[in-house]
């Protein structure tokens, strides 16, 4: 999957180099949205989303006809979501807690623990954008694939279970530094004059790879509290997000 993401980035860059003209447009967007996690483990499930925001500056270059190449840079805030762990254990062994005992021992987190992640990221999106023929002052567009490189700038986490409630803990060491997402979207540009337009759109994005390091362990205990088994927590948690975009094109 990493090779697919890298190939898409190379192909998009090559298309820009081969076919771009001197005409170019810039746009600036503010994108509120929501994000959530999904996993491949039926005992680790999404238990809530995270309201987030993204600030993006983009460059558009024409390729062929109404097809454009776009690249940009974004700052994303509050990305993430909450995962409920039906089986507890030493789930965040590398994180930093106010109480060091919470990432030591066999089972510092009980069964039914919710862990909420709030990530800050630097993003580099690349995409193809097709603009439909203009209707009056309006131009509709379809964008995809959108391949985004994400670099973690920071991560905070909330932990909630039957015996504790922690807020804004440093869970960054248990989150991968680098990831990629794929996505698609669409929207409308409303032309104020030939050199200035308003933009509104919506897009969906999904991680290509596991967002979390999974260095922890999960521990099954008997009703009497005795340990029955210890295994590595190796689920794959992928982040999904829906973003609204509002901006200007000039």
Q: Low-confidence parts lasting 5 or more residues at pLDDT below 50?
A: 1-12, 14-21
Estimate what percentage of residues fall within beta strands.
Answer: over 45%
- What's the helix count? 1
Average pLDDT, all residues: 91
The helicity comes to: under 10%
Number of domains: 1
What is the CA–CA distance across the termini? 35 Å
Q: What is the CATH topology classification name?
A: Porin
CATH architecture label name: Beta Barrel
- Name of the CATH first level: Mainly Beta
Overall 3D form: elongated
Salient structural properties:
250 residues; elongated; Porin; 13 strands; mainly beta; 8-stranded antiparallel barrel; 3-stranded antiparallel sheet
Can you walk me through this structure?
A hairpin with a 2-residue loop joins β3 and β4 (67-85). This protein has an 8-stranded antiparallel β-barrel. It has 250 residues and is mainly beta. The chain has one helix at 2-19, and strands spanning 25-39, 44-46, 50-64, 67-85, 89-90, 113-131, 138-160, 165-170, 178-193, 196-207, 217-221, 227-232, 237-249. It has one domain: Porin (Beta Barrel).
Summarize the SSE layout with pairings.
Elements (H helix, E strand, L loop, with lengths): L1 H18 L5 E15 L4 E3 L3 E15 L2 E19 L3 E2 L22 E19 L6 E23 L4 E6 L7 E16 L2 E12 L9 E5 L5 E6 L4 E13 L1
Antiparallel strand pairs: 1-3, 1-13, 2-4, 3-4, 4-6, 5-11, 6-7, 7-8, 7-9, 9-10, 10-13, 11-12
Quick overview of this protein structure:
This protein is mostly beta strands and 250 residues long. The protein has one helix spanning 2-19, and strands at residues 25-39, 44-46, 50-64, 67-85, 89-90, 113-131, 138-160, 165-170, 178-193, 196-207, 217-221, 227-232, 237-249.
